[in-house]
Amino acid sequence: MKPPMLRLAFAFLLLGFGIPAQAADSLEARVDKVIKAAPYQNAHWGLLVVDNATGKVVYEKNADQMFCPASVTKLYSTAAAWVDLGPEHRFETNVVRRGNVDSEGVLHGDLILVASGDLSMGGRTGPNGTLLFEDNDHIYSGGNNAGTLVPCDPLAGLAELARGIHNGGIKRITGDVIIDDRLFEHAISTGSGPRQVTPIMINDNIVDVVATPGAKPGEAATIKLVPETAFISVDSRVETVDEKTKASVVVETIGPRSFLVRGRVPVGHKPICKTFHVGEPASFARALFIETLRRTGVRVMASPLGTNNLEKLPSRKDVAALVKVAGYTSPPLREFVKVVLKVSHNLHASTLPLLVAVNHGDSTLNQGLRRQGTILKDLGVDVSSVSFGGGAGGAREDLTTPRATVALLRALEKRSDWPQYSACLPILGEDGTLAKAVARDSAARGHARAKTGTYWLDNALNGKTVITSKALAGVIDTADGRQLTVAFFLNNVPVDETGIDVSEATARAGRALGSLCEVFYGAKHETAAK
Questions:
Q1: What is the pLDDT of residues 278-302, one digit of tens each?
Q2: Total domain count for the chain?
Q3: What is the pLDDT of residues 454-469, one digit of tens each?
Q4: Which pairing describes strands 464-477 and 483-495: parallel, antiparallel, or unpaired?
């Protein structure tokens, strides 16, 4: 054992050459320091790290055991859609007419928007044609005050269709406006956020409620709905309070078309975004389309407050044979995959297996998942070691292994379009769900691209929380020039401390996974396979 002064001098020598003092520790010891930390001593860990150049295992722990992957599930659903539909696939949404248009531009009949499964209908499209996202996306703003809207028109796709109809000579519609949403059988999203999976989605089937404080305490806060529509009614009482009072805004659903907003917003506080999840997506889209048509100069006799009348439609085959009057083409699928992976968009991810089903002439979620299984098997994934009940990661059936997840990623890495797919993944310490996984000055920041996952349940026995899953899978570019493919799964973490809420506990677990990224980023050709 070195004398105290010698040990101190040795530590200074290491620091003087820019070598972390922990470098003397083995790779296994540095990993253990993370996974055996106090909050995780009784948790279940699954880890696999593979060197891409050699295919050799750098580290593994429980790599063949099944874990709850949470939103790492989205790697599987996006990969299947990417391979099956192609990254350049675009959604074509057409509007057709049933009836004749006279010389004065009057359509004596119905206007039908045929939903194509477009995940945003122009609602996230930026000026350069790419889809926009925010690290704190509005779909998750129900449980926090950090939700942010993307700076674009949520009705852009409907507006383009309305302009096409007007420019094509239709000035008035005597019949109904109908949304044909029969592309696939409706399902339920397996994740938080909007729940109904339908072929028509406008603004993620959400009405955003933006509360802006007044100039002084006691004044009513300003409430803005995005998009604004007569279809939705709101009763709002949100007060401006002094800057020392904690912000609190709550949206309470009354019915499929109405809600309450109550709360307090401190003076000077940034606008708070909350959400109302629409109960009738097709009727909501119909109302917005009618209102958009009217703003464009097309007179519509039907009321936007009505219900979408699918029973009035002929067969889908007969609808497809009607005269097209306008169309909207989406950005490519790779842009939608970017949003799904960067912000972990549950509703969009839940739709992907259904779009795969439709691509093969099918229409149900189970059919889409079976197709997904075939695609994954063809990629070389051991499908006997995975189980999925949806595309987002919140189903009880969702289970996978670190080895299957690494196999999926390595199969994608061999494809010529891997750079495009990789660009869709969150970047460690920079954006998406990895934005705060490491400190801003971390050496590993910017050197990992990975999908994260978070899932927790309330423990009714003690009123606390169990983190069912915190997960991360992707690639790390190491300090010595290697690339590693990694899968980290942390399951079953009881949150026993008092004074810590679930968001803080899950963020802490996320930082633990970030610490593992830092460990392997700095690992210099070390191996500690178990």
A1: 999 999 999 999 999 999 999 999 9
A2: 2
A3: 999 988 988 889 999 9
A4: antiparallel
Of residues 450 and 191, the one with the higher pLDDT is 450
Query: Distance between CA 398 and CA 393 in Å, rounded?
Result: 6
Same-domain status, 408 and 273: no
- Burial code (b: 16+ CB inside 10 Å, e: under 16) for 181-215 equals bbbbbbbebbbbbbbbbbbbbbbbbbbbbbbebbe
| In-domain check, residue 193 | yes
Domain presence at residue 359: no
Sort strands 92-101 and 323-329 into parallel, antiparallel or unpaired: antiparallel
| Residues in contact with 283: Cβ distance below 8 Å, sequence separation at least 6, in sequence order | 179, 231, 306, 307, 308
- The answer to whether the CB of 351 falls within 8 A of the CB of 197 is yes
> Who wins on pLDDT, 9 or 468?
468
Give Dmax over CA atoms of the chain in angstroms: 100
Torsions phi, psi for 90 (to 5 deg): -125, 145
Nearest of 184, 281, 162 to residue 231 by alpha carbon: 281
CA distance 92 to 349: 19
DSSP characters over 304-344: TTS---GGG---HHHHHTSEEEEEEEPPPHHHHHHHHHHHT
